[in-house]
């Protein structure tokens, strides 16, 4: 129970999503302890076949291992996009730090936004193991050549939006990320374990904000409902285009980077949210949402994928503002990077002096 008064959003039977993260963590440890079934390939080995065997045996690819160039590029694209999302994702909530309704709410929100920065750092570090530097990755974001999640191009208009970001956006993020804990690339899978555990706390804090608002005054409840109405479809769109239009899914699933398709995860998210919305006493804005006995899942209205494509292309409500803010923060932070580099050079010189 969360707060001893209502069930936690991820407290489903069978251990819920956090249970799955723990199982993935145990599997990672077990794989690390197990001797590698395939030693290093011999000089005349067929490297593609060797790689396929490692993937087939569900063993992890590590930075030292040979990997196809396309696998490496796909991972850089996805991990970098994920890292950028965490960093840009600090902005919509950061917008409310100075206006949080109490000191306690402010402290919690500060901690959450700092966690997002931490997630960005784990992910940039994971991407760097693939032979690209953090400077290059930041440059790719700032020049618009790499993307970040569509969801962070929507504005946070009221305090209830902070609750909804926790409940729906972090909720969607967890549903997407729990399977990534079993991704074939070791550093990404390991980063995901920690990220998912922290996201679970994020989701709970959002859920609790909404629970308080939904059980408060009529105005507070209306504010919570309005936020849910605005964020529901953009949250569904976070999972990406429908399977038929997903360019990367088939290959990423064959490589065991992705374990489920975009539509499978979207469905899982919808099924999870229906019961949670009932506990909150809020309505999901979809008149066609109903249980389908035959499918054993809820039927629901798809998000507007044309809108998703527009937002991805840079034409969402806040794209320009988010990028301007990030570029300014990067420029303003130049002196920190310079100071860190100067300090590192000085330490290096001192070490050389001692060694001489
Ligand atoms: N937004 O072939 P597809 C967080 C692009 S942070 C933007 O299905 P894929 C949080 C896609 O890149 C959560 N672009 O692609 C942080 C591709 O474009 P290109 C972020 C999208 O990679 C702070 C094209 O559309 N989570 O939770 O197989 C505060 C075709 O798509 C989006 C991650 O990054 C989108 N929504 O599947 C609070 C998770 N969707 O490169 C919370 C890791 C698709 O061909 N990423 N595109 O031009 C993934 O799991 C996968 O990359 C995706 C997309 C499911 C997102």
UniProtKB/TrEMBL annotation:
Domain of life the protein comes from: Bacteria
GO biological process: phenylacetate catabolic process
GO cellular component: cytosol
MF annotations from Gene Ontology: phenylacetyl-CoA 1,2-epoxidase activity
InterPro entries: Aromatic_CoA_ox/epox, Ferritin-like, Ferritin-like_SF, PaaA, PaaA_PaaC
Transmembrane segments annotated in the record for this chain: none
Name assigned to this protein: Ring-1,2-phenylacetyl-CoA epoxidase subunit PaaA
Species whose genome carries this gene: Micromonospora mirobrigensis
């Amino acid at each position: 129970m969360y707060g001893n008064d209502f069930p936690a959003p991820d407290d489903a039977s069978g251990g819920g999503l956090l249970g799955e993260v723990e199982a993935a963590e145990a599997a990672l440890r077990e794989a690390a302890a197990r001797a590698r079934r395939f030693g290093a390939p011999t000089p005349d080995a067929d490297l593609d076949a060797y790689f396929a065997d490692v993937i087939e045996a569900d063993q992890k690819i590590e930075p030292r291992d040979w990997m196809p160039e396309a696998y490496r590029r796909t991972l850089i694209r996805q991990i970098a996009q994920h890292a950028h999302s965490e960093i840009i994702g600090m902005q919509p909530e950061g917008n409310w730090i100075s206006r949080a309704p109490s000191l306690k709410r402010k402290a919690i929100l500060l901690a959450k936004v700092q966690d997002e920065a931490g997630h960005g750092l784990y992910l940039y570090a994971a991407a760097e193991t693939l032979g690209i530097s953090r400077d290059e990755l930041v440059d790719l974001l700032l020049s618009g050549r790499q993307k970040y999640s569509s969801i962070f191009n929507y504005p946070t208009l009221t305090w209830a939006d902070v609750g909804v970001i926790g409940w729906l956006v972090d909720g969607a993020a967890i549903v997407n990320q729990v399977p990534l804990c079993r991704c074939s690339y070791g550093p990404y899978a390991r980063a995901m374990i920690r990220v998912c555990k922290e996201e679970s706390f994020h989701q709970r804090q959002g859920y609790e904000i909404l629970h308080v608002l939904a059980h408060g005054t009529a105005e507070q409840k209306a504010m919570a409902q309005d936020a849910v109405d605005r964020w529901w479809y953009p949250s569904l769109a976070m999972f990406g285009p429908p399977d038929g239009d997903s360019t990367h899914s088939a290959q990423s699933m064959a490589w065991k980077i992705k374990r489920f398709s975009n539509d499978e995860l979207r469905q899982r998210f919808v099924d999870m949210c229906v019961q949670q919305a009932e506990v909150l006493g809020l309505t999901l804005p979809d008149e066609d949402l109903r249980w389908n006995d035959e499918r054993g899942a809820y039927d629901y209205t798809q998000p507007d994928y044309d809108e998703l494509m527009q937002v991805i292309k840079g034409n969402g409500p806040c794209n320009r503002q988010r990028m301007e803010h990030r570029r300014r923060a990067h420029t303003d932070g130049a002196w920190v990077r310079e100071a860190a580099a100067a300090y590192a050079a000085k330490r290096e010189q001192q070490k050389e002096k001692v060694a001489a």
